[in-house]
Structure formats: structure tokens, C-alpha cells
Records
---
Amino acid sequence: MQDFPTTTIEAKVAVVTGGASGLGAATAQALRAAGARVVLIDRDAAAVEAAASRIGATGFAADVADAEGIEAVFAQVEARLGRTALLVNCAGIADPGSVVRRGVAMPLAAFRRVVEINLLGAINCIRCAVPQMIEGRTGDAEAGVIVNTASIAAFDGQMGQAAYAASKGGVAGMVLPLARELGEHGIRVMGIAPGVFETPMTLNLAPRSREVVFAAVPPFPKRPGQADEFAALVLAIVANPMLNGEVIRLDGGLRMPARV
Amino acid sequence: MQIDQTVAVVTGAASGLGRATVQRLAAQGARVAAIDLAGAPLDALAQAMPQVLAIGGDVCSDAGMEAAFAQVRDALGTPRILVNCAGVLGPARVFRTDKATGRVMPRELDVFRRVIEVNLVGTFNTIRLFAEGLSGDDAADGEDRGVIVNTASVAAYEALSAQTAYGASKAGVASMTLPLARELARFGIRVMAIAPGTFETGMYEVVPTHTRRTLIDDVPFPPRPGRPEEFAHMVQALIENGMMNGSVLRIDGAVRMREPTAPREARPQP
């Protein structure tokens, strides 16, 4: 029982990127169960279609870093379902790699690709969602909530995670300026920094990288996080109107060592 | 690490923090390569400091920086100091109001992409080439073989409105400090970042007057913008102190940035 007014999810348009799998899919399902009209964006066309029909959502196949593609998706969302009120950015890739491998520098394109998807992709969806939130605002009520997925790599990145840590650090670093900028329009902006979670992103890593990631065991509980636990935090963030401009670690107390 | 006779690369070298760093390192006897976009400021630096190797180039270009590092190696030798100062502010809100229709529209993505390219991707670009040059070294004796100092910002922690891309890019620089230090340890390379507050540079000059006033009013002590020479002094301290590694240091007069206090009508409109 709540003794304060919480932000409702029922009937709101909620866009989830990376919605076809992992943290995004679990979040989409939880939002759907709470009565949201859910939109999934994912680059995998077949997977997003399947995930959408499984939970009764609308799926779009698009690359989050593609400016025009995402503009088109949000235009369709507004036309078909109404204005976006909730945005959860889960699309991301890990792609670990050494800065120098056998005496040769990492190609700059490899670093850039991680930053494009994880960081610019989130900015891209935010810039497209915000105008809909602003135009859909009633009086001085809350207009929308944005939840971004950072990572504990933003704070203690491991070897081979220069690009991933840079991109997720960027996601964490933009939460406050966005909250400051969008506050006068009634939009809250939050970040979640998950520790080690069991998702396709981590499970599909190369064997050696996967071993390293899952060898990091939190103080308690001594197991990887589950996507449903991430989704539960998203719902708690959306519901609590005082949460704003903050990045929450969701990691069982884990601090990543340099190596295992 | 000793600075005298050591080869140092500085980006964003033609003005502000970069130029002060070039001057300080050269005065300490370093053989400095100064990288910046080709143009009048770089030409002026080359003229004022003929002992410095001035190289025109874009930090975002992989081929451009590969050529620049090859030139440094040929002319001066293998660089063991890298100071990344190249950066842009590029303020922009995530939305804008269309003048004709009055509708609220998304800001163009490329506005944000450019800031992240220069500040974050550009910083990594020189790091990967610098590390490649030292990757043949054996760090077994425990002495440092190279030092990298990157420029973050207090905006990595408390960026203001319209600083989404700047704050994100600088937070990215801050966040990659630790994984880079962990990874490059095997080559004997230390990696640090400095997070300056408000400094008297060309970047600061373009900040709106009312924002500037708030920024300075909020500095507990000393109540003034930092001097580029003070940044350069810290760079030298980080290079010389062999135990400094993997962290981000604020140099800001204890400031914590808050939103400008100007009346709403004086704020930049979306």
C-alpha cells in the first residue's frame, strides 16, 4: 500500500530499446503486465517481432544509432499508439577487446561502434522521445520518465573494457545534465548500473571473456543478476516520483577486479 | 617519469590547456609534438616555439593520427608522454522548437555525435597509437615506460543543461581511465585523467555571461577561473609521480556546478 501518489504505468506508451532480449525483454514484459502500451525497438527484426507478439506489444526493427530510422519509428509510435511517456534504453553491446593486441592497435572503428550503439543510440532515442513527452504534458504534471542502462563498468571497468566503460560512463554522466535540462518540462531521467547479469549479451561472449565476467561473484547474493530483477527496479524507478538525476548500482555489492 | 629529453605528444595543443601544457613540458626539456587542427592558432604556436614539432591533424581521424604518430617517431623518437587536451563544448538541448510551426522537435543527432567524436573517440584514438608504440617494451623492472594524461571535466560528474553530449563525453573519458590503467599496466604505462572546473580558455569564453557569473560565484576558493598554467602544473606532477595511476583528479577550487541562477527569460530558449 502506497501512502503517496506514485507515477502510474497503466495505458501509457512505453518504448523499450533492445526490447527483443535480455534486460529489455524483461522490462517490456513487466511494463506490459503493469498495463503499459509497450513498443519494442531492436535491430533483430525476427526477434523483435517474436518478442512483441509474445507479450502483446508493437515491435520495430531499427538500429538505435540511426538518426532517421529512429525518428521514423517514433513518428509511427505517435501515429499508431500515442505520445511516448516512458522510455527505457536497454540496447547495448559489450564487444571487449585489447587496446593493443600482438603489437597492433585496436582499429578506431571498433571503439567507435560500441560508443555509437551504447551512448549515441541512447541519446538518439532520448531526443526523439522528449518532444512527445513535452507535447503530451498536462499542466504541471509529470510528463515522462527516462531510464538509461549504464553499467558498473562505468565505475570499475576491467581490462579489455575501454570502449564499453567509456560508453557506459557516458550514459551515467549524461543522466544529471538531462535531468537538469528536462526538469522544467516535468521529465525525470535516471540510470541503472547493473553488475553481472545473465543475459544474451554476457552469455554469448567468447568463452574466455564469459569466464572472466561470470567469475566476478557479488558479496550477496552470490550469483549473477536476473533480467527480471532489472525490470523490477525500472518499475520502482518509474513509480517513485522523487527519483531523478541518479544512477543506481544493481550489483549485489560487486566491485569488479582488474582480472580474475 | 623524467620529463627532460622525453618525447611528449600533446593534442589540442594550439590553445588553452593544451598550449599551456606544451609550454610547461618544453620548458622542462621534453621534446614536444603539438597536435591540433591545422590553422592560424597552430601556426602561431609553431612560430612562438620553434623547438616544438607542430602537426596539423584531426584527432577523430584514424589515418590522420596514424600519420601524425609516424611523423613524431621519425622526427623525435617514441613518445612516452601523451596529454590529450583536444575538446569541444558544443552545447545543445536535446530538443528544439521549430520557428515556423512552434512544434517541439528532436535536435539533430550529429550535433551530439561531433562532441563525442572529438572528446571521447578522439582521445582513445591517440591512446591506442601511443600504447602501440610502447607495446614492445618489457615493463618487468617495475619502472614506468609511459604516461597518459587525459582531460575529463567536472562536467563528468555534474554537467549542466545543454551539456548532455559534453558531460557524456567527459564522463566517458573519466570511466575509461581505470580499465585503461589496468590493461596498459603490462606495458608499464600509467593512465590518469584531470577533471578541471572552470578554466580561462577559449572554451570558457563562449559560455554565456550569466552562466559564467554563476560558475565563478560558486567557486569557494580561489574565487576565479583556473589558469591553464595551473592545469599544466598538475600534468607535470602526475607525470613525475610514479604512484599516480588509474584515477581522475578534480582541479576546480572546490566548485560543484549548479544550474545558472539567471531569470528564466534570460536563459537560452530551446
Note: The CA atoms of residues 16 and 151 of chain B lie 12 Å apart.
---
Amino acid sequence: MNGFTAIIRRELKLAMRQGSDAAIALMFFVLVVALFPLGVGPEPGILERISGGVVWIGALLAAMLSLDRLFQADHEDGALDLLVMAPWPLEALVLAKCLAHWMVTGLPIMLISPLLGLLLHMNTDAYLTLLAAMALGTPVLSLIGAVGASLVLGARRAGVLVSLLVLPLTVPVLIFGVSAVEAAAIGQDAGPHLMLLGALLLAAIPLCPWAAAAALRQAVT
Amino acid sequence: MENARKSVFDGAAVSCVRGARWVFAGLDFTLSSGDALVLVGPNGSGKSSLLRLMAGLSAPASGKILWDGADIGADRQSHGARAHYVGHATGVKPALTTAEDLTFWFTFRLRDDPDAERRALEHFGLTERASFPVRFLSSGQKRRLALARLLAAPAPLWLLDEPTVGLDVAGQSALESAIAEHRDGGGIVVLASHVAVALGGSEREIDLADYRASHADDAGDIWSEFGA
């Protein structure tokens, strides 16, 4: 699939050369999580209890930061017109965009999350589960985010609007992500929670590109 | 060129509504391989809107646009493959180099012919700028880069919206020779321009002012409800 990889390569090149978007999302994630020990106090029991939720909420908020740029730049400079005229399915194009977006924001967030778990005294048994849950959950954030990002094209204050649209839709990811980590932390089986996260991902892979492609076609008319 | 077969691109009773106002109505055109159509008309008469309809980016309010008898809206992928649209915004990325930007678009359009890319850069005088970041190009050079896509990924239908904006004399003559060659090869060109562009042969002209909708009230002029 020639065009698919062409999109991913282009997005990665653009992200690397004007890389502030991805770096900002990651820095934001670290800062938000680092604020909690300062605000709640350093008592290990409390921090350990809330660590899963804090890391996940931080990841959600950080992912929102970079979403509005997903299609906005292409919309502004006219490239979106040409992308919509792709000689191959527009849904695949959206999927490629999401994959690139995940590699630039979701993947770094996932990789740094155990470090932030350490900051919050997270039970070490939960680290692997946290990584697995993030690996399944962060791509869902990029996919749902693509729907929001394509819907707000052309709107004023699109960045805020996209967060308002997308955050409620990410609640299932938050719930199952946190319960997987908490189950692992108290020595229970995290399997069912991870499977539900996987199911969310499997549902999002076909549905979100389909919805986002429809919104993009509308955006260029 | 590859298609010896004649293609027909035509529109019947095409109408366009933007912002709840009729822009034009009842427009017919028929173009076959090798033809060129020039759209003229005052600002706001719908030249760009018609080109976007022809590109399949938006759908006509009424009427049909057909390629070889098939509605272009029914199979957007095939129409995307056969049409090149160059609009006001060039869609070039400042962070890429000239060659990277061009390579992306022809790979994206599923072409794999480095020779065509080299020739496209050469034709529009960008060979020496190939490894330059696009952000250092002048606006005329960015326009040339956008036009170079036409040659890098051949497609039978060219839709050009004010393609000469920012071009110098050499750039315009490069565009003119590209158009002439394209028509010789059986391509179709539709062009909106306020500047006279030589199209290498006879051409048709549509003055969109002639199609200004007379039944302007039929669209339900919503603005009047707000007293505007």
C-alpha cells in the first residue's frame, strides 16, 4: 500500500522537523502527573491508590492537546483538498494519519508512563499491565480524536472544541485502562480489562476512520 | 499518451448553491480529449465553485457532472485518480524539501516514476531547488512546485484555478507549454484565469455571468429572514 506508507512517512517527517506539537504533549503529560504529589501530598498510600487514574487522566489530556493539528494544517494550506481527492479509500488515509499521530504522541506517552508510575509509588507489579493498557488505549484516543478533529475543521477555537467533543467519548478507555492497572496492583487478573480495551480498539479501527472520512468530505465542500 | 480512447467530460444543467444563495444555474458543458475550457466572469461569479464541483470536492445543487457517462460523485476515488486540481492554496509544506513534497504527492497518487518527477522539476525550473526546504521558496516558486505535480503524476483532467498567480514570464510559459503538451496527449484542461493564458490551440469559453441564476429566490434566501 504505497499511499498509506507515503502518508505516514510525510507525517513523521513533518513532526520531526517542526516537532514542538509532540514534545508539548509529552511535557504536558509529565507536568500534569508531577503536580499530583505536590497537590495531594507525598504520602505514599494515597498516591499509590490514585496512581493509575492520575496517569491515565494525564495521558487523556495530553493526547487532546495535539489533536486539533491533525487535519488543521492541511485544511489551512489547501493540502486537504488534494488528500480528499485520493485515488484510494479516504478511510485508509485517515487510518494512516491516526497511526502517524499515535507514533508521535501516543507511543512516547505510553513509554514514559511507567516512569510517572514510579513518581506516584505505583505498585511495581502493575507496570507491565500499565504498558499493555496504554498500548491498547492510546491508539483508541488517536482514532476517536480524528473524528473530533475532522468535525471541528473551520471552527473558531477548534482546539478547545475538539477536547469538549472527544473527552466524553474517551470515558470507556479511561475506565477499563484504570481498572486494568488497579487490578494488577492488588494482584488480581487484569486480563478481562485488557480484553475490553482491545475490543474498544478493534471497534475503533474501522468505525472512526469511516466517520472521520465522512466529516473530511464535508469539510472541503 | 496511454489513452488513445476518447474521454468525454460533460455537465448537464449544473447549478451551485453556496451559503443558501444560487451562484449559477443551468450550466452545460461538454469536453472531450484534447479540449480546453476557459472560465471567465467577475469575482464571485462562481469560477472556483465550478472547478471544485468538477473536481468532485463538492456536489452540484442540481444537475450532473459526468465522465464518460458516469456520475463523478458516484465513484470519487476514480475521479480523484483522473483529475488534478490546483487551487489558490498550494498545499505545499514549508518543512519538507521541494523534492520531498513532490515525491509525496506522486507516491500518494500511486505513481512510481522518478523520471517523471525529475522532468517535472526541470520543466518548472526547480531542479536547482530540489533539496531546498520549501519555506525558503518564493511564492512564485511554490506555485511552480504545485504545478509540477501535474507533470509528475499524469492525469487526464487538469482543473486550474488562477494558476498564473505569482508566476513570472518564464513560469507562465512553462505552464503554457505543459498545457499544450497535455492537450496533444489527449488531456482536458479547465482553467479559470484573469490573465490571458495561451492554451496551445482553440479553446472554449464559458462566461459565468451568463448563468447567474435568475430564480435567486428559489434557494430560500435565509439571510432575508434575519433582516440582512
Note: Chain B touches chain A through 31 residues (CB under 8 Å).
